[in-house]
Hints:
This protein is an alpha+beta fold. Helix content is 17%, strand content 40%.
Amino acid sequence: MKFQVNRDVFSEAVSFAVRLLPQRTTQPILSGILLEASDGALVLSSFDYEVSSRTEVSADVEEPGTALVSGRLLADIASRLPNAPVQFSTDEGRIAVRCGSAKFTLLSMPVEEYPTLPQVDERTGVVPAEEFADAVAQVTVAASRDDVTPVITGVQLEVGETSLSLVATDRYRVAVRDIDWDGGTTSSAGTAALIPARTLSEVGKTFAHSGTVAVSIVRGDDRELIAFSADKRTVTSLLIKGNFPPVKRLFPEQVDNYAVLTTSELIESVRRVSLVLEREAALRFSFSIDGLALEAAGSEQAQAQETIEAHLHGEDTVVSLKPSFLLDALQAVHSEFVRISFTKTENPNKPGPVLITSQSSKDQPGADNYRYLLQPNLLLR
């Protein structure tokens, strides 16, 4: 194999291919990047049996061929090459990389032992890339990081007639965002896929500026996977097996008791007052006609209070919320104002979850279909 490729194009392609590779693997062969050169194109792929990445770039191919090389090492080299075309060649199990005056010789890994990448032919639908990336960032913060319950470490994608719903929960909070969905001539409404949140987060960042992203949900006899494709790049991921909890039904249809606040002001206030809190402790929020009072009883040595402006609709309300969970929501609403709505429970002495949504003005709700439900009085550890 022998080819020449633009340095920046090559570096970006290698970086994409290794992004989802595991930091450590029990099978060294899975740490490799597969390079396939033919017909004026170079294809770079990675696969660890759970996630795969594939990208194609233009190259001046003198001798077609295939090679497998350590992914992390090649990525480190590619990111530091001088500003010159990259020349790549193989000879008797060795790989030579030349760029300007720099030369590297790498050991080739056995291509015949590398697993076959999953193939995805038909697409289920298409989503706007920027809107999809924004939605992924908004909901993945609510996914659980506790591997004891794998089903809630993922994000549930639920396909409707004209919309795609992304849902995540860690039991203490639920985040939902709906975006536009084009299923083409094939009806895919009712289809659902549960994707690892870490993988989906990387997919969102990768395809954020790609115009549109094609989504393919494949359910075969031996494996269920999802694929995302755009700009000659494809990422596939195995789906998480199990039933995602029906958390969307927890959202109330209407809440009459709510407060509207300036998002940036509330963020800064929460950050200041929570400085005195011990880990996992909650902040006390008292909403009244006079505004919002924040109180933190950190310890005998430190307490904090602050009052900020809030426009309350309904009755006075007091709730205790975990500040980090609240900040995740406030940073995700992407609007100048935020609405915090207070739900009810059958017990009048126990407040229900608070519903956090965007607010385009003091009087006008936002229109981005983002909802975040946060349980007050969290179990403190």
